[in-house]
């Protein structure tokens, strides 16, 4: 019934994607009973690991008393307050996914500026219909998009003029290979866009986990609208876009000419309740800072393992998100990341998988809060062993 046997393309790989039947802590168990240390963390959505009772209890209690109410409810305003306080937003609106959050942020910018041109970056990914991983995808929403190479300020600035409605940028390319923005690039692009009256959109769907309030702030960049998703929903479908009141108040239905923003599940009770407990009780700003530092330390250990082997391998990333690349030097752009050895890349993934460590076929790793130091060591040993085996076979 499911074309290709799945309903989320990124999960497909050869010979077949794993089917999980159980999860606990940072361990996944597949349909054949094999156990894996989960180092993928569901592409950043699984930050909490697989057994966070506080989310389960909160969501359970919330829907036990409020289930599909078709009205406003206190969990929604509580999460809005938590988001605004944590990320320094004046206003926020909820969606069902990061994709929708970006579509609505772009809509806001187009309406606010009366312009239609967008600037995005090669290797950028902002959702299933906003993918610039390999140029302009035929499945993208039909926006008028100009693409600049990531981390190339001069090229970006040359595309910024009075026709621009918005620039949309990830503070670190996520799907594009965990390539962080240079500070000068991010702040320079925002300054140039602001200079022509365009709206600066930071896509922090993956990167809001870094530091106390997201990666853009750590790099010195301040967006007009920021988009969120993934882990904040505690495992439930989630997206949000927020920022300056002047822009977001266009959704205020008391205003003439307001922008309508529909979505049956925008304020669904389970997500709203889970999100508040995630931000205020589990992944607090202090925990986020510690987790970022822990990720940096682990990436250093991983780089040390890679350096022991005579193979073209490197690792990039920031904090708890990173990508192993089958290329000798750390990539700084999508063009670099495209120059990986696809066979070695796949063999690293399969080698880890065979040794009970689950990562993304494209090399991505995201540490969860549940992963133990012992499990991280298991991951490093599995990588060491995989690379030793590969090096011997390729000799
Ligand atoms: N933006 C970024 C940076 C993402 O990584 C993703 C998802 N991988 C999205 C947007 C889209 O989010 P969703 O999958 O929830 O639609």
List the helices and strands and how they pair.
Layout: E1 20-24, E2 27-30, E3 35-38, H1 53-65, H2 74-87, E4 91-95, H3 98-113, E5 117-121, E6 144-148, H4 153-157, E7 164-169, E8 172-173, E9 179-180, H5 183-195, E10 199-203, H6 215-218, E11 225-229, E12 239-243, H7 245-248, H8 269-282, H9 285-307, E13 314-318, E14 321-325, H10 334-338, H11 342-354, E15 357-358, E16 364-366, H12 373-394
Parallel strand pairs: 3-15, 5-6, 5-7, 7-10, 10-11
Antiparallel strand pairs: 1-2, 2-3, 4-12, 8-9, 11-12, 13-14, 14-16
Helix pairs in contact: 1-8, 2-8, 9-12, 11-12
The structure holds 4'-deoxy-4'-aminopyridoxal-5'-phosphate (PMP).
4'-deoxy-4'-aminopyridoxal-5'-phosphate binds at residues 43, 97-99, 102, 125-127, 170, 174-175, 203, 205-206, 229, 239.
Summarize the structure.
The chain is of the alpha/beta class and 395 residues long. It is built from twelve helices and 16 strands.
What keywords describe this structure?
alpha/beta; 2 domains; Aspartate Aminotransferase, domain 1; Aspartate Aminotransferase, domain 2; globular; four-stranded mixed beta sheet; binds 4'-deoxy-4'-aminopyridoxal-5'-phosphate; 395 residues
């Amino acid at each position: 019934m499911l074309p290709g046997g799945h309903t989320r393309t990124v999960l497909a790989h050869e010979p077949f994607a794993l089917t999980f039947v159980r999860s606990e802590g940072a361990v996944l168990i597949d349909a054949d009973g094999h156990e894996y240390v989960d180092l993928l963390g569901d592409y950043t959505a699984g930050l909490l690991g697989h057994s966070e009772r506080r989310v389960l209890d909160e969501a359970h209690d919330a829907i036990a008393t409020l289930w599909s109410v078709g009205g406003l409810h206190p969990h929604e305003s509580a999460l809005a307050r938590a988001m605004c306080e944590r990320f320094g937003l004046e206003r926020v609106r909820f969606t069902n996914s990061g994709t929708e959050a970006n579509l609505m942020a772009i809509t806001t910018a187009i309406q606010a500026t009366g312009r239609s041109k967008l600037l995005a970056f090669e290797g950028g990914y902002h959702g299933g219909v906003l993918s610039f991983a390999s140029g302009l995808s035929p499945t993208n929403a039909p926006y008028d998009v100009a693409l600049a190479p990531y981390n190339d300020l001069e090229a970006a600035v040359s595309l910024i003029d009075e026709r621009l409605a918005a620039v949309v940028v990830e503070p670190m390319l996520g799907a594009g290979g965990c390539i962080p923005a240079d500070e000068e690039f991010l702040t320079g692009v925002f300054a140039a866009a602001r200079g022509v009256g365009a709206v600066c959109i930071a896509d922090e769907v993956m990167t809001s986990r870094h530091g106390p309030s997201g990666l853009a702030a750590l790099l010195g960049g301040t967006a007009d609208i920021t988009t969120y998703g993934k882990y904040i929903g505690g495992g439930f479908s989630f997206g949000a876009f927020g920022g300056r009141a002047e822009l977001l108040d266009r959704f205020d239905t008391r205003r003439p000419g307001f922008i309508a923003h529909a979505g049956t599940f925008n304020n669904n009770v389970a997500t709203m309740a889970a999100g508040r407990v995630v931000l205020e009780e589990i992944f607090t700003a202090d925990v986020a800072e510690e987790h970022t530092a822990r990720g940096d330390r682990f990436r250093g250990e991983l780089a040390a393992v890679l350096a022991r082997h005579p193979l073209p391998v490197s690792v990039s990333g920031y904090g708890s998100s990173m990508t192993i690349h089958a290329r000798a030097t750390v990539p700084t752009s999508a063009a670099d990341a495209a120059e990986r050895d696809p066979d070695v890349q796949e063999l690293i993934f399969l080698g880890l998988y065979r040794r009970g460590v689950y990562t993304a076929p494209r090399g991505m790793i995201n540490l969860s809060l549940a992963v133990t130091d012992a499990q991280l060591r298991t991951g490093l040993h599995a990588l060491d062993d995989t690379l030793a085996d590969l090096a011997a076979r390729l000799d």
